[in-house]
Design goal:
By secondary structure, this protein is α/β, with parallel strands linked by helices. About 45% of the residues lie in helices and about 15% in strands. It has helices at about 55-70, 85-90, 90-105, 110-125, 165-170, 180-195, 195-200, 215-225, 235-245, 260-265, 265-280, 290-305, 310-320, 325-345, 350-365, 375-385, 395-405, 420-435, 465-470, 470-485; strands at about 5-10, 15-25, 30-40, 80, 105-110, 135-140, 145-150, 155-160, 205-210, 230-235, 285, 450-455, 460-465, 490-495. The strands form 3 sheets. Strands 8-7-6-9-11-10 form a 6-stranded mixed sheet, sandwiched between helices. The protein has a 5-stranded mixed sheet with strand order 3-2-1-4-5, sandwiched between helices. It has a 3-stranded mixed sheet with strand order 12-13-14.
């Protein structure tokens, strides 16, 4: 990435939407601007997990203001990620469709484990370089992320459905603070978080850090009251909860350092925080400067430089987990890449990333064989739709699953209208590569030529008559492939001469 490049990360959280703009400079990102708006989408979910119209409108209004600030930014300079509320919302597609139009950039809904990885990236990059074993927690509006790591690498990630907004709505609905309400909220939080005891035992880390929202709010209050700066102790947290109980109600709380936008969710936030500190035996929690949005920025740098990123590692791990035939994957990967290059002779914006997607699909095209040999493409797509793969957003995994699902058989089963030229090229390249590698040997590609007429939506693969005679089974399968494309907007012709 060129030094001086401006980058923007947008975090669509359950409580707040945040925009971080930074300038890349020799491995670091210098803050240019930071905008935060309290949107509270998390309390806009009804009992059927649909976002209310008001909650969506608050989000759209905020995105419109962010869009004005991002005027002039290129797509490669902006990444927007959405977290737990939009993971839960059944009508999220309604919000996302309009939100993307307003913002002018795609919005990715990321899985909880991916959110945790990015949080750790943000925290670790803004801490002094060290190989200490770190525990990082982030209590958001509707989820809490817990991560173990060392240096800049997260080794254990998890996301739990407990957060300041959700717990405030459920256990402090009228804003009343009593010993009983805090007790009930903490017991309920520990019940959800209990499995973290086995994943994050006290001996696994040497220092604990807290990121973002609730942790930052609590630390501000404690510091203003004279407690040590930049950390939260069990004693300090107990003192704060006693202050809240003495006030008796959120509206009557008078604490220096408590921001107005935190008042309505402070009860839920501190109850989750104390439950977590008790459960994991955290005596001192240091306040981290990094957060999810910083992790997104550093991840953008990694992807732009085309270095092996978390997605490459995740693909390899999944392939190993399901004992995918590595040699066959390599053959399909190499052949599909050659075919795609013939379809895209002039590299343009997005070509490199498209090639990467094709490589991932080729690597994982047989991941479903561990479940069924006959319907492995269907099972492979299901695995990708439901896997926790670090580095990937949920829509990215779904699109990857579509390629795996469409690798064989009829194409009408795909949830795609084939309007994307890039998708059609990727799918054809993968399907043809699998056909040519059907014998699980390196195929003979001499004399094969693949072309595309984008305007007419036609693909054509030509081969010499001698090649066709020499490879009758491949020829048969390629002729059958023409039929597969008949009910799509594209046509595929196999021509021998």
């Amino acid at each position: 990435m060129n030094h001086g490049t401006l980058l923007a990360a947008i975090d669509l959280g359950s409580n707040s939407f945040r925009l971080e703009i930074g300038r890349y400079d020799h491995g670091q990102i210098e803050r240019i601007e930071y905008l935060k708006e309290t949107v509270r989408q998390g309390n806009g979910l009804d009992e059927e997990r649909n976002l209310s119209q008001d909650a969506m409108q608050r989000g759209w209004d905020c995105l419109a203001r962010f869009a004005e600030r991002l005027s002039g930014f290129k797509k490669s300079q902006v990444r927007a990620v959405a977290t737990q509320t939009l993971r839960e919302a059944k009508n999220r597609d309604v919000f996302l469709k309009r939100g993307c139009e307003i913002l002018g950039f795609p919005i990715e809904v990321i899985a909880g484990t991916e959110e945790a990885r990015l949080i750790y990236q943000g925290v670790s990059h803004l801490l002094p370089h060290s190989q200490e074993k770190r525990l990082v927690i982030d209590i958001g509006g509707r989820s809490t992320e817990i991560i173990l790591g060392s240096g800049t690498e997260a080794t254990e990630t998890a996301s739990f459905r407990v957060g300041s907004v959700a717990w405030s709505m459920k256990y402090f609905p009228t804003g009343e603070f009593t010993e009983q309400t805090f007790y009930r909220a903490e017991i309920a939080a520990q019940a959800v978080l209990e499995e973290a005891l086995t994943q994050y035992p006290r001996e696994a880390w040497s220092a604990a850090y807290g990121a973002s929202g609730t942790v930052g709010a609590v630390a501000d209050i404690l510091q203003t009251a004279g407690w040590p700066e930049g950390e939260i102790s069990a004693q300090g947290l107990n003192w704060l909860i006693k202050c809240l109980m003495r006030a008796g109600h959120a509206e009557r709380v008078r604490l220096d350092g408590l921001k107005e936008d935190r008042r309505a969710v402070i009860g839920g936030g501190v109850s989750v925080l104390r439950a977590l500190m008790d459960l994991l035996k955290i005596e001192r929690l240091f306040v981290a400067q990094g957060a999810l949005r910083h992790g997104v920025l550093f991840d953008m740098v990694e992807r732009e430089d085309e270095a092996p990123d978390a997605r490459d590692v995740s693909v390899q791990r999944l392939a190993q987990k399901f004992s995918v035939d590595a040699l066959q994957s390599q053959r399909v990967r190499e052949v599909s890449s050659l075919l795609f290059k013939q379809l895209t002779p002039t590299a343009g914006d997005g070509t490199a990333q498209a090639m990467r997607k094709l490589s991932w699909a080729a690597t994982l095209h047989e991941v479903g064989i561990a479940i069924s040999h006959s319907d492995y493409h269907t099972h492979g797509a299901y695995i990708l739709d439901n896997a926790d793969m670090l580095g990937f957003s949920m829509p990215e995994l779904h699109r990857l699953g579509l390629l795996v699902l469409g690798q064989r058989g009829k194409l009408k089963k795909l949830e795609s209208d084939f309007e994307s030229i890039s998708f059609a090229k990727l799918l054809l390249s993968l399907r043809l590569a699998i056909i040519l590698c059907h014998a699980r040997l390196a195929p003979d590609l001499q004399g094969l030529s693949l072309s595309c007429h984008e305007g007419k939506r036609t693909f054509s693969l030509s081969a010499s008559s001698s090649w066709a005679e020499k490879h009758p089974q491949s020829t048969h399968l390629l002729r059958q492939e023409s039929t597969s494309w008949q009910k799509t907007p594209w046509t595929f012709d196999f021509v021998t001469a």
